[in-house]
Amino acid sequence: MTELFTWAAMLGIVAGAFLMARSRPRGPRVLPPPRSRSTVRTFQETNPIARLFLETRSLQESAANWPRVLKGLNADDVPHIRTLLLELRAFDTSSPRAALAAIEAVCIECKRVSPQVTREALLERALLRMKDLAAAG
Question: Burial letters for 24-49: b for 16+ Cβ neighbours within 10 Å, e otherwise?
Fold first, then answer.
């Protein structure tokens, strides 16, 4: 009886080892990317200059027309921003290229001078730049 018990125990151990070896994944184990639980916002989300600069570059690269520029730079439909953008559009109604270039230049300029400036102030400076260019040209 002990011999039968020994054989049964050995058979159980071998069967268990076989089942465990079969269920083991083959190849290298790949872990999923870590999930960030922090609510830290990116620099582009917190900095109005960086956000406006990236939006302007995106519109320039896609050769956007005025309706798309007006919607893209004023997604929240703020009345003062809408007015500033319409004043910028008055300089060249056919293409927003010059206005977008002025906004981009103002973003670069203000980044060096005052990093915490509002979108309205940036657009006002771009409007002044466009007025200066129109008066000089």
Answer: eeeeeeeeeeeeeeeeeeeeeeebbb
